[in-house]
Amino acid sequence: MSAARNLYNMYKLKVSFPPRMSLKNYEGYEFRAFFCKKTGQRGIARTFFELYRKTIKQEIGLAMCLAGNHDFFIMTRKKDVDLESLGLEIEESSILYDPIFTIPQGWQYPVKECVYRFFRNDFSKGKLDRIHHGVLNWEELQWNIYQLMHRNLRTSFKYVARKTKVFSDSFKYNLYKKIIPCCTMAHYFFPKGYHSYNKIFMKVKSDYEASIIKALSSFPCTTYVYPLKESAVMIIFHEGVRDIFIFTKKLEEKGLVDELLLCVPLASSL
């Protein structure tokens, strides 16, 4: 079977998704993260659908509806986004640094086994690097290519070259030399298929942050990591809440985390 056919089957079964690219934090294009509470007891679903529409319009990068201490987790680059008009109270906000998408090494194991494999790693104190990349010197062509390709890096090169009215060599040069180095690449892998797993939303404050993120590659699925100024948000895929309870209990018992908050994602705009 050809590689292209294998890839088609992976996408069809949702074992993977087309890779995405997200612009790193450059001056004027910084992501900010907001933890929000819905004012009043009604309208949670209506608010999420409004946020979802803003995601489609690219006014918001991500909106998650949560069950737990917060009702919503929102990411956006827009400085003038009006969340209060949606009936949201901002409880916490932070600059959001370059996200990390782990490459799972434990894909052949159940999550239960991967939890134990996680703690076989060596842990040492150390934070993730939080980098601001300065000024972005893109021209109109680079922006046009990025807008056409950032949601799916497998978009036809011929199509993008035609839409941007450049020759193939010029398009490839700009993509590989000018655009991709300025972006974080998001790759996804879920060995049993995306919908075979549950998700947990974890906000962690830890002196062992870098080691924990590295060790998350022990899990079978890609973990999404969003570094904030003082903590990190992790979206972990699992097969049962008992595995998560064991995982978080051991993190606390081994003194690897100072603060740990769990929420259950109810819906996501991704």
Q: Give the biggest beta sheet.
A: 9 strands, antiparallel
Secondary-structure class: alpha+beta
Radius of gyration: 19 Å
- Overall mean pLDDT stands at 93
User: What does the overall shape look like?
Assistant: globular
How far the N terminus sits from the C terminus, by CA atoms, comes to: 31 Å
Question: What is the CATH level 1 assignment of the largest domain?
Answer: Alpha Beta
State the helical fraction: 25-40%
Strand order of the largest sheet: 5-2-4-3-11-8-10-9-6
Give the amount of beta strand, in percent.
15-25%
Number of separate strands: 11
The tally of domains stands at 2
**What is the CATH T-level topology of the largest domain?**
Alpha-Beta Plaits
Number of helices: 8
Extract low-pLDDT stretches: none
H and E order: HEEHEEEEHHHHEEHEEHE
CATH architecture of the largest domain: 2-Layer Sandwich
